[in-house]
Design brief:
With 193 residues, the chain is α/β, with parallel strands linked by helices. It has five helices and eight strands. The protein has an eight-stranded mixed sheet with strand order 1-2-3-4-5-6-7-8. Homodimer.
Amino acid sequence: MESFYTLQGEGAHTGKAAYFIRLGGCDVGCHWCDVKESWDVTAHPSYSIDDLVEGALQYPGRMAVITGGEPLMHDLSGLTAALKKAGFNTNIETSGVYPVSGSWDWICFSPKKFKEPHPDIFRKADELKAIIYHKSDFAFAESFVASLRSDCKLFLQPEWSRSNEMLPLIVEYVKQHPQWQVSLQTHKFMDIP
């Protein structure tokens, strides 16, 4: 769908320079999705892996973030192999509904209520990022913790349009449950992509 160089705005790598590759296609259907234009895989042009890597090499940062849509709808083995060969750390943001393909340095698992995650994701996730849209999302987030590795980082992030309402609840929740951390969409505060 698009690729661009910016800062990672969310989660464990917030503030780091990153080359984002946003793949088209998603069948999860979150009503609050901020990139609904990514859903239709046929609405976006195809690019060769060589072109994607060449685009990333134009910038000094060596962290590549594959996102979507839902990137694991695609076999990412070739893309991650080429990025690693070119010297990139590979990160992915996924809802985890498909089996993991590719070679990853960091996997951000962001489950959604609209489609159940594939069991493959639980032992591979380095980070759980739960989006808090409603008070019931705290229990949803907690429901995954026992299935994750003990070193998986846990983040609660307010859905952007409800930040004013949800952020105070998240702050109080993290104070009471210190195994969690707050994630904010800092790129939106900085007005960058």
